[in-house]
Amino acid sequence: MNQRRDAGRDGFSVVCACGISYNTDDRHIGKQIKCRCGRTVSIVRSHAILPNDNGTSATASEPPPKRRRSSSARSSSLANSGSVRKRISQTGAWFLALWTDALRATASDRVTRRWSARLAGLWTVSMVATWLLLITTSESFLPAMLLAYGPRFVVLVPLVILVPATLIFARIAMLPLAIGIWIALGPVMGGRVSWHTIGSAVPTSRRANTVRVLTYNTQGGRVVALNIRSLLERVQPDLIAFQECGDQLWDTLQAMPTWHGSRHASLCTASRWEIASAEAMPNADFARIAQFGFGGTGLVARYVLNTPQGPLIFVNLHLETARKGLEALTSQDGLLPDRASSLRGPQLKQLADAENRIDLNAQIRDRESERAAVWVAKGDKRVPLLVAGDFNIPVESTIFREHWSDFTDAFESTGTGFGWSKREGTWLHIRIDHVLGNSTAPAPVGAWLERDLGSDHLPVVADLRWGAR
Fold it and tell me: Where are the domains of the chain?
């Protein structure tokens, strides 16, 4: 404990070991103060010898001589800067004291306190390791892959015991535990918070110079077709990208006025602006792979639109799913399905030599994303480009990070929540539907999920504003 004398006649300051200062006077000598860091400070006047400005010495019982001020402005500036430095120093000392106490708790004589603190720290370290594994090995390391494409909330299960135990036996250990919870909810589970969308639903009205994109995997579209008119009236999109779009949904969309539409296989695309050109990504090589059941069924359609702001490239895509690889874990056929038994030559050798179906599916999806990312961005890089659809990969996937990280993800930038657009059953919730833009595209200013309309996906809505970059 350090002490120093204030300028007041009877007043002096008592400074806690963590750096927090308390003003008091002679009337309180002998009493104790409970410091914010948890320590107890005894109020005792110090008579230590302190140096004066003129080189002489004075006891702490005498107020130091007042320093002459050259000007009021300079004095005020120095006082303010000194106050800021003091607050920063005190705050830093306070946090250091908290971390020191949390570390000491791991070596406490009390067994319950010691192990509560240790387990809290161990879980936090495990969350850091989980995050690193997720973003570096999600397509090559099976446990990381199962977490990337499975229910990630399982990482929170230990908190059912850890939080109560920490609060009861080692409250100071809530500091590292809180950091672990933040890592689990954010980097690991994909939670996002943005001032653009926090606490808000899809706005009924849009700002000027804004493009609204709707992307939705409709799971065949039969049920969605019954509700599509109300959805479009409520959301008022400018661009629509439907995946797994069947005949009934396409017919309903075509019957609606003021829309310019185009269909490629199960991709249905509509625009409020004229479609100047349309083309589909060549996939003959992937189609030959698709017959073996490991992947290669991805579809990509690219459109040039004549907007009031000039040409805009809009891409609707549906890439291969990781499910075709993960199904091998429960498949009765094993690595080779029955229909592949008649294969001959290099193709059969490739399948037979593959370590497992999961790795082969991951390789196919990686090459498919690589082809799609290069193909959609071909041509003049100055032309704004938007990509929307069911990517079947989360943003933490190494495939997504390798091939799509040059684009801006609307939900990553401006969404709030987890953005789980794929919801299968009770447990599987994952964000695999995205709206991306290149560096010259209108910048995202909001991204939301719409309510369920009869699919295993939810509609994703994104607002992007021209000139916002």
Answer: 2-90, 106-188, 210-465
The structure tokens 């479609």 sit at 275
Task: Using alpha carbons, list the distances in angstroms from residue 380 to 304, 312, 374, 385, 438.
Answer: 12, 11, 13, 10, 12
Q: Are strands 385-390 and 310-318 parallel, antiparallel or unpaired?
A: parallel
Instruction: Report pLDDT digits (tens) over 379-418.
Output: 888 999 999 999 999 999 999 999 999 999 999 999 999 9
CA 37 from centroid of its chain's CA atoms: 33
Give the residue ranges of DSSP H helices in 106-221: 111-137, 142-149, 159-169, 174-183
Going by pLDDT thresholds of 50, 70 and 90, the confidence category of residue 330 is low
Q: What is the DSSP string of 87-131?
A: HHHHHHHHHHHHHHHHHHHTT-SSHHHHHHHHHHHHHHHHHHHHH
Q: pTM (2 decimals)? A: 0.76
| Cβ-count burial 428-446 (b if 16+ within 10 Å, e if not) | ebbbbbbbbbbeebbbbbb
Tell me how far apart the alpha carbons of residues 369 and 367 are, in angstroms, rounded to a whole number: 5
Instruction: Pick 283 or 310 by higher pLDDT.
Output: 310
Class of domain 210-465: alpha beta
What residues contact 314, with CB distance under 8 A and at least 6 apart? 239, 241, 269, 271, 302, 303, 305, 386, 388
Task: Give me the pLDDT at residue 59, please.
Answer: 41
**Location of structure tokens 């056929």:** 333
The conformation of residue 7, written as its DSSP 8-state character, comes to S
Tokens of 49: 């010898």
Size of the chain in residues = 469
Phi and psi at 4, nearest 5°, equal: -145, 150
Instruction: Tell me the one-letter amino acid at 133.
Output: L
